[in-house]
Amino acid sequence: MRRVRCALLAALTLLGTAGATTTLEGRTLRHEGAGGTWQRTLPDALGPLSGPLEVGNLVLLGAGPAVYALGAGGVVTGRADLPGIVSSLDAGGDVVTASTLLGGVTERFTLNVNLNAQGGGLSVQERVALPPDPVVTGWLASVADQVPPATLADAARLDPLNPFLTLRLAQAQADPYEALSLVRRTLGGTLPFPAWVQLAARLDGAGFPSAADLALTQAQADASARGVDPEIAVSRAALGAFGNPSGYVGALLAQGRVDRAGVWMTYLRQLHPRFEGGGALYERYARTLDAQGREGEAAEWRQFARSLRPGTLYNLGLEGLGAVRDAARLASLALGLSLLAALLTLAVRAFPAQADDTRDLGGRYRSWLRRPLARARRVFVAYASPSERLTVTLLALALLGTLGGVQWANLSGAALRSPVLSSGTYGGGWWNAQLETLTLRPGPDAALLTALGAQLDGDDTRARDLYTGADACMRNNLGVIARTRGDEPQARDLFRSALAAQPDLMAAAFNLGLKPASPEAAFQQRLRPGQPRLCYPDQRRLTRAVTGDLSVTLGAGLRSPLALLDPSAGGSARLGLALLGVSGLGALLLLSLLLPRTPLPAARSRPAGFRVLGLLLPGASLLDSPWGGVLLGAWGVVVAALLPLSGLVVFAGLPLAGAQAALLGALGVTYALNTLAFVLAEVRHARRAGRERQAGSN
User: Which residue from 375, 471, 531, 603 could staple onto 367, CB 3.0 to 4.6 Å apart?
Assistant: First the structure.
């Protein structure tokens, strides 16, 4: 049957070419042939043009990211929406192909021309995964918005498949029945889901809420057919390109239209529950419901937000990485303050003795040139005891680890927000090209991601080759391939094996008919009935695939120190400099453990500056005792947590705002304990100095 259809298409193409002439001069399209003689001047808003190509009594023309089928009089009878700007149209052999270009990515698609449809229609044979690019997703609305009011009626007549033109025409109607008829017409076509969302927002704003609800229903159906799945995260940028439903919810809440906001929240919950900023919007909507006395609904939305936490980093939720980063920043600041206080105190204590000991070597600074080895034995840490050196060394190494944690959080966050991992779906030419820009770590997590893209694109052979090992998620997806090919026994064996290996694997439970309760299972049952459920990687697996754990980040920094200064991958040059500096300091402190201790008589061990710092910096003068390190660390944590009060730093991911009184109380306790310990240390020092004087007199 396919051969007959292709042969008919080829014959009609040749016949149309022989009996008609279509030319494109600039932006003027002229046609003479079986469909009559007509001429259209195409507006600049349509973007770059390619073609034309004659197929039977239709004229195919590429305009922007779409291919139009034009019938008699140049009226649009069909449109194929593509993921890039159409660069060429070809009728080679028995097929019509369209090439697209976007961001350096070229794709080719096979067009199905339906000459038997009313007026003639177009469809695309391959899967079309739309990139999160407003140039593509907002194109139809942009074209309609640029039509002058004087030519709006003519433009809507020539392009009845652009519902944004029809809606503008409906809003200009004085007759409400005519306006309603035009609104109904906007819902009768075929659109990509971002256009449905944009149309729904405009219908809502124009006072047609029922039509907006139907448009959102159409959006979900189209998104599901394109492979968009609620288990895949969506970034703020991607969601903005897909119609910005979260932004519209915020506008509705600001206007007090809570019921309409609820409809849009339901759309997000069903299609994009894991969108960037979702936690804050869920809580804002719940607080709005609380204010209206709808506590039960508010509690249900909060429970839904909590249900999205499994599979995230440390089960902290969708925005948990921000809390991890801020916790690492707080720890880094606390350790940095503690280390600085310890080194400053040790340096001040050794300063007078160091001046006396380096006088014969040429002075404190000149001695580095004259007697570097002898001078190295008189650095200020050489006057510290082994326990004091060990404490500051451990502080430096801990600081290196927490700074590495900040770096890891930055790199992980940038990778997880990349369009490859946060566009709502996997696969497609644009996605595959973007995936190459990520440096995936070899392993089952990266293999799962790549294989899913191939499977969604229909390349089951390549996907099966990539699904290797005993990974439960991969077994489930192999079972999906087996069921798709009609091998039900093998599919059920693979699903059972996957569920036995990972009892909480929702996809395998769904495929075995166990009816798990989850948003993804409900989505699959409602919009993809009868289709098996794929297993997608959660946030933990994605993080392992793109950045690995903390040891991987630190190891990469040690192997390539200059890469720490490159901010292009989500890092920070200042953070890179801090990592390099602390690494060097840690190495020097480790070497200092090998230095013999330079004697420090009791008479010179507690100079005035040392005593002042001992009172101002709790624990800094008590590093000989493990309790001194504990006290210094506690002081560093409390001071670092109080620094947001100064406005110098912000820890947005940590709930510190309500703990200020407790932190101030803890700070007072540290100073009280430090004063007590300082007095006891002074008593011990006095006794030691007295014994030394008595021994000297004897």
Answer: 375
Cis amide linkage into residue 52, ω under 30° from 0: yes
CA 189 from centroid of its chain's CA atoms: 33
| Pairing between β-strand 95-102 and β-strand 85-92 as defined by DSSP bridges | antiparallel
Contact between residue 80 and residue 60 where contact means Cβ atoms under 8 Å apart:
no
Distance (Å, whole) CA 100 – CA 413: 31
Cα 213 to Cα 147, 187, 306, distances in angstroms? 26, 11, 27
Q: How many CB atoms neighbour CB 648 within 10 A?
A: 7
Rounded Cα distance between 536 and 77, Å, is: 38
Indicate the pLDDT class of residue 698, thresholds 50, 70 and 90. low
- Give the residue-averaged pLDDT of 147-157: 92
Q: CB of 430 within 8 A of CB of 105?
A: yes
Considering only CA atoms, which of 180, 150, 184, 143 is closest in space to residue 164? 143
What domains lie within the chain, and their CATH numbers? 24-126 (2.40.128.630), 426-548 (1.25.40)
Which of 34, 29, 11, 26 has its CA nearest to residue 91?
11
Q: pTM for this one?
A: 0.85
Q: Is the dihedral of CA 461, 462, 467, 469 positive or negative?
A: positive
Cβ–Cβ < 8 Å for 448, 425 = no
Where do we find the tokens 């310890």?
A: 342
**What sign for the dihedral angle of Cα 423, 426, 428, 430?**
positive
CA distances (Å), origin 689, targets 178, 330, 345, 623: 103, 41, 20, 19
Q: H-helix or E-strand containing 628?
A: helix 626-642
Q: How far apart are CA 43 and CA 27, in angstroms?
A: 7
- The C-alpha atoms of residue 318 and residue 567 are separated, in whole angstroms, by 24
Give the residue with greater pLDDT, 512 vs 353.
512
pLDDT at 655 (0 to 100): 77
Residue type, 412: S
Closest CA to 135 of 61, 60, 81: 81
Amino acid in the structure at residue 455: Q
Q: Determine the Cα–Cα distance for residues 358 and 254; give it in Å rounded to an integer.
A: 71
- C-alpha distance from residue 550 to each of 77, 267, 314, 433, 495 (Å): 57, 37, 14, 28, 33
pLDDT of the residue at 633: 92
What is the DSSP secondary-structure string of 503-566?
A: TT-HHHHHHTT----SHHHHHHHHHSTTPPPPP---HHHHHHHHT--HHHHHHHHHH-GGGGG-
The residue behind tokens 């279509």 is: 22
pLDDT in tens, 331-348: 999 999 999 999 999 988
Angle at 23 between CA 46 and CA 137, to 5 degrees: 20
| Token digits of residue 133 | 């690019």
Q: Tokens 């006290």 identify what position?
A: 631
- Break the chain down into helix, strand, coil percent, rounded to 5: 60, 10, 30
* CA angle (6, 189, 130) in 5-degree steps: 75
Positive or negative torsion for Cα 179, 180, 183, 184 = negative
In a 10 Å sphere around its CB, with 0-12 CB exposed, 13-18 middle and 19+ buried, how is residue 601 labelled?
exposed
Question: Given phi > 0 = left and psi -120 to 50 = alpha, else beta, which region is 168?
Answer: alpha
Predicted confidence at residue 153, as pLDDT, reads 92
The DSSP element (H or E) to which 494 belongs, if any, is: helix 488-501
**Residue 311: Cβ within 10 Å count:** 16
Is pLDDT at 528 greater than 70 in this prediction? yes
